[in-house]
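User: Working on a comparison across species. This one is UvrABC system protein C from Fervidobacterium nodosum. Can you predict its structure so I can line it up against the others?
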Amino acid sequence: MLDFSTIENIPHKAGVYVFKKGNEHIYIGKAKDLKKRLSSHFKAKEGKSKVIVNEADSIEVILLDNEKEALILEANMIFEYKPKYNAMLKDTQVYPYIRVSNDEIPCVEMVRSRKGDGKFYGPFTNVQFTRQLLEVLRKVYKFRTCHRDMSRVTKPCMDFHLGLCTGICAREESVEDYRKRIDELSRVLKGDFAHVIDFVKFKMEQHAKLLDFENAAKYRDILLNFNKVMETQGVVLPERVNLDVVVGKHKTFLVFKIRSGYLLSKLVYEYDGDLDEFIELFYVRNQMDVPDKIIIEKKTRSVSELSKILSIRIDQPTDELEEQLLKKAIDNLNYEIGLIISNRNVLKQMKELLGLSKLPNRIEGIDISHLYGKNTVASLVVFENGEVKKEEYRRYKLGDILDDFESIRMVVKKRYIKHNLPDLLFIDGGIGQVNAAHEALVEIGKECDVIGLAKEEEIIVTRHGEIKLAYEHPVLRLLVRIRDETHRVANEFTRALSTKRSLRSILDEIKWIGPKKKKLLLERYTSVEQILSVSRDEIERLIGKKATESLLSELSYLRNF
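Assistant: Here's the predicted structure for UvrABC system protein C from Fervidobacterium nodosum:
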């Protein structure tokens, strides 16, 4: 336990302070005046400050020049150390980012977390939109997406031959020119989508003036595809504004991100703090994408001070358009809160009806699939608070096992020898499958609630009996969702393995397709249908004219057979 003498020599300066217990960071804070702020912790007679002071055995301070530096360092340290007494931003789902690496020749890719080096742009609302956006931008800026060691490359990869990048890896262009394009891309990823629209229009008109109609048409198609992708977000404003709308209540916060007049993202977070604390954490974490203005429902003194520190205008709506955006954000926030409450109620009902030992906040579901006894696989899906967490899905290859029960035992052991147990383990099947999962857990010295769902009757199976609920019961509907999702993922994995194996065996029999060309094709395409759906020119650039002719002739024959 610490006493007041611990902070006697701490100066009246800005900085960050850390309460530690051994090597563990238990609380991280910032202050304009460290001595004054730490004194308030020691003077507290109750509450969190009293608990922190009693538990900590040391304090570290980092002196900084101003409050803004302290704010940024505090947020970064909280994100890194995740102290138990700091309120954390909790995503209601994992949002994707676009990462530009710090390499001399930067790589650009979509990622699901802010781990590693580089500049992170986002977060974006969903994976599909982010992928489509990157696909269109790549046609304009020709950036690399590979992870090749640039110091060892002497020949460009297939992307160069397909016109997807400039062959920077083999120095087909200068590093300086490549980095200039990455700077242009970064400008767009910060929200200046008007820049890419104007650039593509300029290139289209330039080629048209030179009567180069083929390239003019390519840029026209890029522009059409870009607009199509952006319009999937649902809101396109008449003005090219860059602003965010932030609203929150009941520990739930919603952010609308609008860039160049497009609603780029709708982000929902759970956070046990005030609006100004949420804004502080969110915008320090996402410094690469700061709007011109943040619209909030009600301005306070603390928000005004935060506005000065962050150098962002934070204000209430000043015109009809901003009023409409705020109303839309509030409507969406109320919907999200209703959804969260509804899911929590369903999970409470599930615990009571099924006699579970704990609230099933985290449910993991397993299904087994195979093709005539071959390519046996297992899917593992994750639901948290009643919603899917696709980024945590796993797929397992189990060989050619015919026994369903043995397959379940195998995947349960594989998963839970190394990973923490969920609150509830769901198995697609009846009492036999449920018992197999339970036996596997016992063998590895672990235990949790295990249930199943019989395929046809939709009867819930536990180790203690069966429960039949009405078709429309919310608990049954959630379990059916989990069952259907495990089934979908397992079947898709089985088909993917079967298709890849089938394509591999077909390529073995085609003249002019040797090991190298076969490898190129398998890296690029996953099925016969995919090869037949692309242009002949694309395949010729990959494997040559003679091999392409032989390949397409054989595949067309097989499809028509």
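For your comparison, note: The mean pLDDT is 85.

User: Helpful, thanks.
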